[in-house]
Each structure stands twice: as structure tokens, then as C-alpha cells.
Amino acid sequence: MEPLPVLHSPAPPHDRADWVARHRAPIRELLAGRGAVLVRGLAVASAGELADVAAALGVAPMTEREGFAPRMAHPRGVYSASQWPADEAMCMHHELSYAAEVPGLLMFACLRAAREGGDIAVADSQELLGRLPAAPLERFTREGWLLTRVYHEAGVAWQQAFGTGSRSAVAEYCAAAGIEHEWLPDDRLVTRQRRAAVVHHPATGRPAWCNQIAFLNEHTLDPAVREYLLDLYGALPFNTAYGDGGELERSVVDAINDAYRAGTAGEPWRDGDLLLIDNIRMAHARDPYRGEREILTMLAEPVRLTGHVLAASAAQGG
């Protein structure tokens, strides 16, 4: 994959939003052509400043639903980065690829770069299709993939994930999004949703491997963490399978992660950086890090992809 494109801004902080507005066209052109662009020199230092930059770019934020890791919400559609252990990598994934409405655009602002690690990493999932093993790729293309979530004490509570404490509101959301759900004792919730693994980009029509099959699979978890969660709760907070519910082989999960690594482009964060990512075309990841680190994000430009939502009831087992 080509290096991550970097656009340098000489604008002083008081002229930040105006500079972005004047350069909206070249920023958007780079994003459309390369799938991601890093704007360096803007000195973004707060949630409000990220929101101002987004407004200057004509970006309208969306509200996160079904998040898999906790975030802190800020005004004007800005969130903290997912709260994930600093010593564990977040492998390549497309944000909310299991939702019925997927963010087409992601914006990240680095308020404070880590002392060590935590670099930016992206991978073009259009190119990834050529590196995946043929047999599982054909099966995923035909069947899609299945995500099972168990909302319990580990991870995000269902009230936070769905933005409501009402069971009836959750039922309405699930019905509209093609999600099967079941209430268990102790106020636990189980959901199952089947989605296309390969989607077509809404602007170009090109196919892309847009999903979180490997990231949310049990084989990507640290084995000790996996056993701890199973011993404590009797179920993992999330797991993925073939679209028919068939169990994913470790070799397939490893092959997906290896294919991502072979096509990764990275760049160390600097304080004040702004990163824009086409979330349909590009996967993103986060390396482990040391030291204090603060990243803000905005999910934006939601899209309902053709053929993305599949009937979960067609899956068997798993």
C-alpha cells in the first residue's frame, strides 16, 4: 500500500477553521483518491476545535449506536477514542461495520501523542480482497458473516450501546436494523446480526472487505483474556462466525489479520494531527502504546449499504 498522504497546514490556530474551509476541495479529493488523508499542523487541541474543523469541512456527525467498547461523549458529536487497554493492539477493522447504518467517514484528532507506540495504521480493504484465501473469501461473499453479542458486565452495557434504558425501544431498534435479540435473566441481552462481508463502495461501486470478522472473533482475543471472560460470565461479549453460523477456524482469522498486515500503511501521531478515513474503503488499527495518549473521534456521513443487512434467521447454529 502507498504511504499515508500527509497535507501540511501553515495556518495559525486562530485561522484553523478558515484554512480548512478554503482547502475543503483538495482535502476531499485526497480522501476520495487515497481513502485517507492526514492533515498536519492544524494544532487541534480540544473537542470543540475538532467540531469546528468538521463544520468547516461540511461534515455532519452521527450518533454512535452499538459501540463495542466504551467511549466518552463530548458536545457536537465528538467522542473519545474507544477505551481499550494500552498494552493491547486494536487490529484492523471498519467502524460499526455490523450496524445497519455505517459511518462513511471517520475523523480522528490527536490531542496528545503517546510517548511510545500508538501509531496511526490504515489498510485498503479493496486491495485486501486480492490477498485473502480463495475458499473462505468465496464463502463469506456468498453467506456474509454473523456477529453474536452478549451484553453483560464486560464491555458496553446495552443501555449505553443503544442509548436507552427501554427494552421496547431496543426491540424497535433491532427490528429496524435486522437484529435478532433475546433477553436473558439478570437483565442481560443477546443479539445476533448477519451482514455482508464484501460491500460495494457507494461512490465508486468498487468491492471492499468491509467488516469486523477478525477483530471481534474469539481467536483474535488474548487466550488468557478469553478464558477469563468465559469463566466469569459463561460467554464472550462478542464473537463472529460464518454467515450460516459455522464456527470460524483460527487459520482463517489469522489469514485475515496477516492480509491486513501485508497492506498496512502507518504514520506516528503528532500532537494536533487530524486524520480523515473513508470507513467503507479503509480499515484502521491502533498499536499498543506507553505513556499518556488522548485521541478524539467523530463518526460521520452515515450510509446504508446496498445488500449489507442480511436475515440473521437464515443462519444455523453458532
TrEMBL record:
It is an enzyme of class 1 (oxidoreductase). Keywords: Antibiotic biosynthesis, Dioxygenase, Iron, Oxidoreductase. The keyword Nucleotidyltransferase does not apply. The keyword Nucleotide-binding does not apply. Its EC number is 1.14.11.-. Transmembrane segments: none annotated. One of its GO terms (molecular function) is dioxygenase activity. Residues 20-296 form the TauD/TfdA-like domain. Its cofactor is Fe(2+). This is TauD/TfdA family dioxygenase.
